[in-house]
Design goal:
- The structure is a single chain.
- By secondary structure, the chain is α+β, with helices and mostly antiparallel strands.
- The protein is 32% helix and 25% strand.
- The strands form five sheets. It has an eight-stranded mixed sheet, with no helix packed on it.
- Strand 6 and strand 7 form a beta hairpin.
Length: 568
């Protein structure tokens, strides 16, 4: 066997050295970063003529001086990421870099985190970056997305760990379908974070703690380093020992242990048709009839299931084209009745009907029975909050079905928003242990993005009536503020009329008929004499004499106009 002498190459002191793709049959590409942040591209030429060659020396064209330049973890399966390097500045600016032809580098992204004194950082090929900042109260771990915009800072998660558990190591990996997983190493344990499914209901972080690997039970040595290896396993070095761990967890409702990738994909992957997020999106995009079909099928299926069958229930999927059209296109689809098979049954001999009878099975009685059934026995593949959100959406669908014919698309979306707002807040009144109201979706007002639907609607009179009905028939200022009524009303006359209605309701809301509850509203409408009359009737009020004397002045006179402004 022919011996091959080792190749040598003299280089300046390097802070890091790592492989980069592509690795050809005859050449392996490496990147070295020096203490002065010079970047060396090195080619290792394979036998029979092995050698090491410095292909180029260059610097990143940073806007600010970096404090570290790091490789990007190539965690995405079967895909080569274009970004190779991450630079971090002293001001907390993250910059992503891809190699161009020759020796130059192209910046592909920038995120201004505002974080200073960064001690550790790690970037994945999905352009997720985790930073560790040393603080007096402990280490802050924050996760950032590269898609920074004027509507989003890029921050997805932030958590501070106590000073007695400093962060030792950071490692990225991903499931085969691209769901990110982060391992945070501490002296004696590893914490696993996974990318959470975002919802319209809850105000939670985009990341959640999934599991914990306890190394302290195996060895006294602290963790020095850890890396992900194949099959969702983690290899950890502690002292003179190498520890290989394969995190396994039992899914809720089952006894079989699943591997990490499969479980995370289940928690953050595709959702069943009856999932509250799926139903809400269908409602927002004018697919009310499809939602009614899904609810009808769910009610029909659960009706005949035993408890054992219910624990493993999975709804048969609807055809893809069912989700592509809106209710306005449904009549033509129903008339054509295309004989398209189920996308999961392309090779089955059994023919299945495409058009379901879910709409015919949708009625107040069916929905009420289904809600009661799900209250007693929640669905196994939905969490506690998700089951609660499903119940709210069932009731909301029933409520909006009566009004949708009279509303345009934007008006329907706003109506959905206010129905969900009141139904969720009503359910939150029923206490649940270990869960805050915020986690269950409680809000003091609907979101501004939902108010915008009403602003663009041409059915504002109907929406105003629906908003008043949702408030119990008497809209007060708190109700109007929560629904954003005066942000979306376009008619000045309607604004004045509704403002006067609210002023009257404010006055009538208390048993004492307190004029101070409504006087600002009437002042805004210019009805000073009306306020004066209300104060004359409030003989019980301790400030009646003062207010009567004040309101008797002529506010057209500059002196009293100035006094009114000061008192306001």
């Amino acid at each position: 066997m022919m011996s091959i002498s080792p190749s040598k190459l003299s280089l300046p002191l390097l802070t890091s050295l790592f492989l980069i793709p592509p690795n050809h049959d005859h050449i392996t590409c490496l990147i070295g970063v020096t203490e002065s942040f010079q970047i060396l591209q090195i080619h290792a030429i394979h036998p029979p003529d092995p050698s090491l060659v410095v292909q180029s020396t260059s610097s990143l064209p940073n806007l600010s001086k970096p404090i570290m330049i790091l490789p990007v973890d190539p965690m995405i399966w079967n895909r080569t990421a274009s970004e190779l390097l991450l630079s971090v500045s002293e001001e907390g600016d993250l910059e992503f870099w891809a190699a161009e032809a020759g020796t130059s580098w192209k910046r592909t992204g920038h995120v201004a985190t505002g974080r200073k004194e960064i001690i550790k950082a790690r970037c994945s090929s999905a352009k997720k970056t985790v930073l560790v900042v040393r603080r007096p109260d402990g280490d802050e771990v924050s996760i950032w997305d590269s898609k920074e915009s004027q509507f989003s800072s890029g921050l997805e998660h932030s958590q501070i760990f106590p000073t007695d558990t400093p962060v030792i190591d950071l490692d990225w990996t991903a499931t085969p379908d691209g769901q990110s997983i982060l391992a945070i190493g501490f002296p004696h344990h590893i914490l696993l974070l996974y990318q959470q499914r975002m919802t319209y209901f809850e105000q939670e972080s985009g990341w959640g703690v999934f599991g914990r690997i306890e190394i302290g039970r195996i060895t006294r040595h602290p963790i020095a380093d850890s890396i992900w290896i194949s099959q969702a396993q983690m290899l950890t070095g502690a002292g003179h020992q190498m520890i290989q761990a394969r995190p396994g967890f039992s899914l809720k409702g089952g006894t079989t242990s699943k591997d990490l990738f499969e479980t995370v994909a289940r928690k953050n992957g595709p959702v069943p048709h009856y999932h509250p997020q799926m139903l809400l999106q269908c409602l927002l995009w004018e697919k009310v009839n499809l939602v009614k079909q899904i609810i009808g099928r769910l009610a029909r299926d659960l009706k005949y299931l035993t408890p054992e069958e219910r624990a493993v229930y999975e709804m048969d999927p609807f055809p893809v084209y069912s989700f592509l059209g809106s209710d306005t296109q449904e009549e033509s689809v129903q008339l054509l009745k295309p004989s398209v098979p189920n996308e999961l049954s392309l090779f089955d001999n059994d023919s299945q009907p495409v058009v379901e009878d879910g709409i015919d099975g949708f009625s107040p009685a069916v929905v009420s029975k289904l809600v009661a059934d799900l209250e007693d026995t929640p669905l196994h593949d939905l969490g506690a909050n998700e089951n609660e959100q499903l119940l709210v959406l069932l009731q909301a669908t029933l409520a909006i079905d009566e009004h949708r014919r009279a509303l345009d698309a934007d008006g329907l979306r706003y109506l959905i928003s206010i129905r969900l707002f009141y139904l969720i807040n009503e359910r939150v009144q029923i206490p649940r242990s270990n869960v805050s109201d915020r986690q269950r979706g409680f809000r003091e007002r609907i979101r501004y993005r939902d108010m915008v639907w009403a602003f663009h609607s041409s059915s504002q009179e109907i929406l105003l009536d629906a908003s008043t009905a949702a408030c119990g028939g008497k809209m007060t200022w708190n109700d109007a503020r929560a629904l954003g009524v005066f942000l979306w009303l376009n008619s000045i006359e309607t604004v004045k009329t509704q403002f006067e209605v609210i002023a009257r309701n404010q006055y009538m809301s208390g048993e004492d008929r307190d004029p101070s509850a409504c006087c600002l509203f009437y002042f805004a409408l210019g009805k000073v004499r009306l306020v004066l009359g209300l104060w004359r009737q409030a003989a019980w009020h301790p400030e009646q004499s003062v207010m009567l004397k004040f309101l008797a002045n002529d506010f057209d006179v500059p002196r009293w106009r100035t006094a009114a402004l000061k008192n306001a």
